[in-house]
Structure to design on (593 residues):
C-alpha cells in the first residue's frame, strides 16, 4: 500500500476517484462517438479551454501590463481597470446581442429580427467609465 | 471522504524537496529539462494577491452556487417528461437523475428552476473567470507533473475547465439564438453537464481540505490595499515567487468579481420579471414584441411554424378523442363551454418567463366530454406539421389540475396568431414548449388512477 502511495503520488482513493471520473467521461465519449457532430463538440470543448487560457487570459493580462506601464498611479489604474473589465464582461456574455448575431432561429423563435446592440453596449460601457471617472475625480478632490 | 489523514492532495511536497512518483527518473528528467521560456513565465507572475485564500474564497462561492445550476439543469430535463419520452436527449442510458412526474404546483416552479439555471449560470461567469485567473499560473508550471497522480489530476482539470467553459458558451449562445456551434444543443449541454459534474465532484473531493485549511487560516477580508502582502509560499505554487507591489487588495478583487456578477444579474433578471423586462438591455427576451394584451414574448412564430391563416380560420375544428367517443368542436362551441380564467406564468427552457391571464376550457372538462374526466394522459397535437414540439403528452396530474386550460383568450382578448390562435395549452409549471399552440387535436387516454 505504501509503495502504491509513493509510486502513484497520492492516496489510493485519489486514484479510484479519478478513474471513476474518467470512466464516466469515457462512457460519454463512446456514446457520442457515433454522432456526426461529435468532432465539433470535441473541438468546442477543447477550443473553449484554448480560447480562455491561451487567448483571453494573455489578452487581458497584456492589456493590464500595458495600462500599468502608462501610469504608476494605482488609484487611476483601478478606476480604468474596473469599467474596462465591466465592459469586457458584458461584451463576452452578451456577444450575440451586441454583434447582432443570431440566425433564422432568432426570428423564428421571437418574431423579431436580431438587432445590432453595439450602441447599447457602448452606452452601458460609457456609463461605467463615467461613473468610475466621477469617483476618481471625487477622490482626487478629497485628497 | 477518505479515512486517511491529510495531506490529501496529489502534491505532497509541502516545504520539503519535491517527491517524485513512479517512474522517478522520468519526472526528475522532465524537471531538469526545462523548455525555453518556462523560467521567464514562472517569474512573470507578479500579483501578490494570488494564493490559497483568494482561490478558496472564490472556490467556496462556486461550491455553493454551481450545484444549484447543475440541479436546476437536471430538473429541467425531468420537467420535459422523460417518462413520456419527451426529455432531450431521449436515450441517455443509465446516466440520469431519478425520474418523477413533474408537478403542477407551485405554478411558478418551472419559472423559478429554469430562471435560476440560466440566470445563475450567467451571473457566475465573473466568478468562474476570477477563479481561473487565481490559478492560471499552475497551467504553465514546469514540470507539468511529478507523479502519475498529478498527470491524472491535470487531465481531470481539463475536463473541469473545459466543462464549465463549454457549458457556459453553449448555454449563452442558446439563450441568444446564435447557434454558431452547429451541433444539437440538448445533447451537447446534457453530456457536457455530466462531464463537468463528475470533474467537479473529483476536484472538490481532492481540494476541499485545502480550501477549509485556507479559509480557517488568517483571513484577508479586511486587509486594505496598502497592507496587502503575499501569503507565504504554498505547496500548490499559487503564490507568486517574485510578487510585485499590490495594486488592489484581495477584498478589492472579490468586490470587483461580485460587482461583475451584480451587473450581469441586473441586465439579465428582466427576461424573467415582466415589470423589469426592458432592463434586459442586451438579451433577446428584454424586447417586447409589441403593444397591447398580446404584446408579451413569443416562443416560435406562426409563420415559423408554417401554420397558414386558412388552417386557423372559420373551418378550424378541434378534435377531442377519448375512451367513449370523438367530438369535433369549432371555436364558438369551445367558447360556449364553461370558461375558466387563471393567471399563470409561461416559462421557457431559455430561462425567460412571463405571467399572463389566460381564459379557456379546463382540460378535465374537455376530457369529460369524451370519457372519464380523469384520464391518465392527454396527447396534444398542433397544426404545425414539422418541428420538435408539434405535439406534447401531458400526464394525469397535468390534465387534472384545475388551472390546466385549453386557452382561447389571453388578457381579455383573443389569442394572437403568434400566441397560438385559435387555441393553445397552458398548464401550471409546464415548460413553455409543451404548452402546445395552434392545437388541432387532443387525445385523452386511460384513467388517471389506473
Amino acid at each position: 500500500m505504501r509503495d502504491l502511495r509513493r509510486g502513484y503520488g497520492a492516496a489510493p482513493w485519489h486514484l479510484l476517484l479519478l478513474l471513476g471520473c474518467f470512466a464516466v467521461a469515457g462512457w460519454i465519449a463512446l456514446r457520442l462517438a457515433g454522432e456526426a457532430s461529435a468532432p465539433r463538440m470535441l473541438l468546442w470543448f477543447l477550443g473553449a479551454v484554448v480560447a480562455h487560457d491561451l487567448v483571453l487570459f494573455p489578452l487581458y493580462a497584456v492589456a493590464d501590463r500595458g495600462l500599468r506601464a502608462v501610469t504608476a498611479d494605482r488609484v487611476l489604474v483601478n478606476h480604468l481597470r474596473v469599467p474596462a473589465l465591466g465592459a469586457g464582461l458584458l461584451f463576452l456574455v452578451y456577444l450575440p446581442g451586441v454583434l447582432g448575431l443570431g440566425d433564422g432561429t432568432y426570428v423564428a423563435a421571437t418574431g423579431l429580427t436580431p438587432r445590432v446592440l453595439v450602441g447599447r453596449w457602448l452606452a452601458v460601457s460609457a456609463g461605467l467609465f463615467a461613473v468610475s471617472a466621477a469617483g476618481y475625480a471625487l477622490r482626487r478632490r478629497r485628497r | 471522504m477518505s479515512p486517511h489523514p491529510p495531506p490529501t492532495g496529489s502534491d505532497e511536497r509541502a516545504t520539503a524537496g519535491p517527491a517524485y512518483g513512479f517512474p522517478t527518473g522520468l519526472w526528475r528528467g522532465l524537471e531538469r529539462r526545462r523548455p525555453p521560456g518556462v523560467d521567464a513565465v514562472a517569474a512573470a507572475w507578479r500579483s501578490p494577491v494570488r494564493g490559497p485564500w483568494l482561490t478558496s474564497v472564490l472556490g467556496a462561492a462556486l461550491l455553493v452556487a454551481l450545484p444549484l445550476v447543475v440541479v436546476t439543469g437536471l430538473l429541467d430535463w425531468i420537467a420535459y417528461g422523460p417518462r413520456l419520452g419527451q426529455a432531450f436527449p431521449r436515450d441517455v442510458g443509465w446516466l440520469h437523475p431519478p425520474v418523477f412526474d413533474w408537478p403542477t404546483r407551485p405554478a411558478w416552479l418551472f419559472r423559478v428552476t429554469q430562471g435560476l439555471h440560466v440566470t445563475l449560470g450567467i451571473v457566475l461567469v465573473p466568478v468562474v473567470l476570477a477563479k481561473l485567473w487565481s490559478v492560471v499560473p499552475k497551467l504553465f508550471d514546469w514540470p507539468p507533473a511529478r507523479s502519475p497522480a498529478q498527470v491524472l489530476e491535470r487531465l481531470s482539470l481539463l475536463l473541469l475547465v473545459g466543462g464549465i467553459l463549454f457549458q457556459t458558451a453553449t448555454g449563452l449562445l442558446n439563450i441568444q439564438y446564435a447557434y454558431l456551434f452547429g451541433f444539437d444543443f440538448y445533447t451537447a449541454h446534457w453530456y457536457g453537464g455530466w462531464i463537468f459534474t463528475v470533474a467537479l465532484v473529483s476536484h472538490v473531493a481532492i481540494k476541499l481540505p485545502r480550501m477549509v485549511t485556507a479559509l480557517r487560516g488568517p483571513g484577508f477580508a479586511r486587509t486594505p490595499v496598502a497592507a496587502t502582502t503575499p501569503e507565504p509560499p504554498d505547496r500548490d505554487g499559487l503564490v507568486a515567487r517574485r510578487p510585485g507591489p499590490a495594486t488592489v487588495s484581495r477584498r478589492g478583487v472579490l468586490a470587483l468579481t461580485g460587482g461583475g456578477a451584480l451587473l450581469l444579474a441586473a441586465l439579465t433578471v428582466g427576461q424573467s420579471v415582466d415589470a423589469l423586462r426592458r432592463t434586459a438591455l442586451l438579451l433577446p427576451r428584454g424586447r417586447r414584441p409589441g403593444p397591447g394584451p398580446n404584446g408579451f414574448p413569443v416562443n416560435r412564430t406562426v409563420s415559423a411554424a408554417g401554420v397558414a391563416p386558412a388552417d386557423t380560420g372559420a373551418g378550424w375544428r378541434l378534435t377531442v378523442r377519448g375512451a367513449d367517443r370523438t367530438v369535433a368542436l369549432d371555436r364558438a362551441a369551445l367558447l360556449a363551454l364553461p370558461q375558466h380564467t387563471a393567471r399563470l406564468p409561461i416559462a421557457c427552457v431559455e430561462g425567460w418567463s412571463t405571467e399572463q391571464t389566460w381564459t379557456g376550457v379546463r382540460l378535465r372538462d374537455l376530457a369529460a366530454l369524451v370519457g372519464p374526466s380523469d384520464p391518465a394522459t392527454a396527447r396534444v397535437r398542433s397544426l404545425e406539421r414539422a418541428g420538435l414540439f408539434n405535439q406534447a403528452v401531458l400526464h394525469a396530474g397535468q390534465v387534472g389540475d384545475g388551472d390546466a386550460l385549453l386557452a382561447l383568450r389571453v388578457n381579455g382578448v383573443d389569442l394572437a396568431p403568434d400566441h397560438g390562435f385559435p387555441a393553445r395549452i397552458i398548464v401550471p409549471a409546464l415548460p413553455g414548449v409543451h404548452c402546445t399552440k395552434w392545437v388541432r387535436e387532443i387525445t385523452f387516454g386511460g384513467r388517471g388512477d389506473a
Remarks:
- The mean pLDDT of chain A is 94.
- Chain A touches chain B through 67 residues (CB under 8 Å).
